[in-house]
Structures are given as structure tokens and as C-alpha cells.
Amino acid sequence: MFTQGRIRVVALGLADAICIAFVWTLVVLAYWRVAGGYSPELYLSFWPVVPMFVALNALLGLYHGSWMYPAAPLPPVEEMRRLMLSALILHLAVVTVLVMLFQTMQGYSRVVVGISGLMTAVLAQSVRNWARHALFSLRVGQIPVLLAGAGDVGRRVAAILKTDAYTGFQVMGYFNGVREACADLGVAGIPCLGSLKDIVPEAMRRDVKILLACQDERLFRCQMKEFSAWFTYIEFLPTANAFPVFGSRAVTFDGLGGLEMVNQARKRVLRFQKWALDRILALVAFIFAIPFFVVIPLLIKLTSRGPVFYRQERLGRGGEPFRVWKFRSMYADADERLQRLIAENPAMADEWANRFKLSDDPRVTPLGRFLRRTSLDELPQLFNVLCGEMALIGPRPIVEGEVEYYGTSYETFSSVRPGITGLWQVSGRSDTDYDRRVALDTYYVLNWSPWMDIWILLRTVLAVLLMRGAR
Questions:
Q1: Residue 37 predicted with pLDDT over 90
Q2: CA distance 441 to 445
Q3: Quick one: pLDDT band at residue 87, thresholds 50, 70, 90?
Q4: Could you point out which of 190, 349, 363, 442 has its C-alpha 20 to 30 Å from the C-alpha of 306?
Q5: What distance in Å separates the CA atoms of residue 270 and residue 260, rounded to the nearest whole number?
Q6: Which of 297, 355, 351 is nearest to 329 (CA)?
Q7: Which letter, b or e, does each residue of 353-367 get, where b requires 16 or more Cβ atoms within 10 Å of its Cβ?
Q8: How far is it, in rounded angstroms, from Cα 40 to Cα 28?
Q9: Spatial distance between the Cα atoms of 280 and 63, rounded to a whole number of angstroms
Q10: Which segments within 346-418 are labelled E, that is strand?
């Protein structure tokens, strides 16, 4: 049963090995070309860093928990944190061994070791993701699982796993209610295998050891003893509502088991870290972006009439309105054009009502399309960050008309400052539907951490470079 999972583990191990080997080769050759004075073959003696990196990653649970019995992977943010930790520990160990055993690093460069460590830390997850997409495309290394329950949660889980290369789960079938009602219900094209009572017999027949239980808690408790007699892993997903999971841990009190959920946003030290990180990075980004603040306004003036900047009222922390800065990417009479478009085109009216965006917006200037695709139109929002109205990373700023879509989640959503970039932007950006945007924004607020911000920032750079999902 775990064969496909072990294939996946081997693929991830090879990805890690290729990543660190490639980084070391690249850095050694680049340093040799720049500095010279040594033979690159000297660094062949460092080959043990490759298996050591894979072994350290295994100790940190980076191969779906267990290479023998792989199950769900770590969350992406936690995977990035552990990969960075593994790379930095390994390269610090290399320096320490050289100094302690040989009392010197003569003949070797600290620059090579240091840059190799940093590049491995930054690139390891991206190389893993390429391996995952290759496995997903080839339909190899997909871990078979069964799905119990086909309600809202079950449908959402099934739809996610059908297109998700990261998790590596392949739903073999689902079970729901009674067999008679099951036959007429389809979940993302996944076959129905019977009623809830058929789960264990069918799992034994198919030799599947992982169950995704998307059931009511009472039903789950009734079948828990039956499930535990066969399944090696049971993933219990009782509700679609977001709640804090990052940093959470299992706790026990004299035999009573439970889950400790950590509210990261209530820790003053972490809040100060975010405040400082936002402003420092915004200031650095502004300094590097100064040439854009010279060239882009000139191009805007040369290509269309109207002001250089566009300011729109959005809702900030606590629902307080503020004006967000952008380089103007639309014609000066965009608002009037929008009203005409909505009145004349019902399809566009529906799209605007559902998403507050138009996929093919005729109000956007040719230069504006380029600015949006590259996200350069959002550079002036650095002013909002420096003024304390926005964060560099956070939930997206919304207009008054979008509040109703957040429902009971709005109070949570509005408890923090909106960000220039955030979880929804790196999860598809304009390609995500509105319900998922709300879910991602709420998840970010409840599970925020400095590591999540770093992960989002790295993903934002990649999304912008590839112009992925922006319109």
C-alpha cells in the first residue's frame, strides 16, 4: 500500500540531492571564475554534504513524516522552515568540522560554503515543487487514500486533492451515508465505493491505509474503533471553518488528549517583529525601486491623459477607511466606463458582482496591462506601508462592497492591517475564486507567523517574475 508513497519519498530525496549538488557546483565554478587561484577539484572532497543533507531532512520529518510509512506532508510554511534550518545547520557543521579538525580553512573559501548554504536554503523547496509537479503529471508517487463523507468539507477536500501536486494524495473513492443515496452523488469525478459502513472492508480489499474522515464528530466517534483496527493514518477534517493550526501541538492532561491552538497574533514580540520587518523591507524596497518611480510616471504621462497616481478608498485595520496608492493603469474616465459596461453587458455585470474584477478589462491602458502583469502598479503602496496604513504582507485590502462576502469572518479579517501581497496572491492571485480568497485571507490571519511571511514573500517574487495570475 505504501509503495507509491515510498516512490514519492525517493523522488523528494533525489530532488534534495540534486539541489545541493547543483548549488555547490554552481558556486564553486562561479567563485573559481571570479577569484581563481585554486583548483575546483579541491571541492570534490565535499561530496558527503549531499547524503548528509538528505539524512538530516529525513530526521526532520521532511519526507512525509516517515520514509517507510509516508502520509501527509508538512504544511508548506513548515517545510520551508525545516529545509532552511537543515541547510544552515549542515553548512555551519561543515565550517565547524574544517576549523576543529584541520585548525584552519586554508585552501577552502568561507564564501563558497556560506553562499552554498544560503542558496540551498532558498532553492530547496522550489526544486521539491518541480519534482512534485513532475510526479503529478506522470501520475506516479501518488499516495492512495479513501474519503469518508461527501458533505461540504468532503467535496472541498476532493476538489483540492484532484489538482494539488503538493500533497500527493490520490482519492481512490469516497463513502457517504447509505449506499442507495451514494450512487447518485459525484465528488470531483471520484467514484462512490459505498456507505460509511463499507469503509474498512473496502480499504482492506484495496489495501489502503490512509483515511480522510470528513464526517460529523459523532459519526466519527462511533466508527473510530473500527477505523483504528485497520488504518495506519486517519486525517480527521470535521469542519470547513478556519482555525489556528500553525504552531499547534497535541496536549494531554492525565489521559485526556487535546489540541493546543496558538494565536500567534497575540504575542507582542511577534507583532513587533512584523512591524519592524514590514517597515525595514518596505524602506529597502523603496530605495531599490527609485528608478521605477522616475521612469513609470514619465511613461504614464506619455501614453495617456490623467494623473500618474490612482488612489482608491479601501478598508484597513478595524474597518477604518484609507486611500491605497497605485500607479494609474486605467484611462482617466475608468469609473464612467465601468458603469456603461455594467449597464450594457450582463456577463461583465455578473463578473464584477461576483469578483469585483474583470478578466478582460477594457478600461485598462496598454501600459497599464504591462504594469498589472508585472505588479509594478502596486509599488506606490510602499508609501501606505511606511505610513502604517498597510503591511507588506497581509490579507488583501477590500472595498466596502466586499464586506458581505466575509460574513462572520470579517471581524477576524479586519483585526490586522491589509498587505501589498498575501496568501491569496501567491495561491493563484486573480485566478482564485472569491470563496477561496476569503478562506485564504482568514487562514492567514489565524495562522500568521514570521515564517509564513517569509514563505509568502519568496512565493511573491516567483509569482511576479513569472507574471502568474496577475491581471
A1: no
A2: 6
A3: very high
A4: 349
A5: 18
A6: 297
A7: eebeebeebebbbeb
A8: 6
A9: 35
A10: 391-393
Contacts of 15 (CB under 8 A, 6+ apart): 127, 128, 130, 131
Cβ-contact 431, 469 below 8 angstroms:
yes
Give ∠ CA 50-51-55 in degrees, rounded to 5.
Answer: 125
Cell digits of residue 239: 469542519
Q: Give the whole-angstrom CA distance, residue 427 versus residue 468.
A: 10
- Report the pLDDT averaged over residues 320-344: 80
HSE of 136 in the Cβ direction (CA atoms, 13 Å)?
A: 15
Q: Cell triple for residue 118? A: 544560503
- Give the residues across from 77 on adjacent strands: none
The answer to whether 127 and 18 have CB atoms below 8 angstroms apart is yes
Cell digits of residue 198: 463499507
The pLDDT confidence band at residue 353, using thresholds 50, 70 and 90, is: low
All three cell numbers of 277: 520587518
How far is it, in rounded angstroms, from Cα 266 to Cα 273? Answer: 12
Q: What are phi and psi of 171, to 5 degrees?
A: -75, 115
* Helix (H/G/I), strand (E/B), else coil: 167: coil
Query: Which amino acid belongs to residue 40?
Result: P
Whole-number Cα distances in Å, 465 to 51, 97, 248, 286, 469: 32, 38, 34, 18, 11
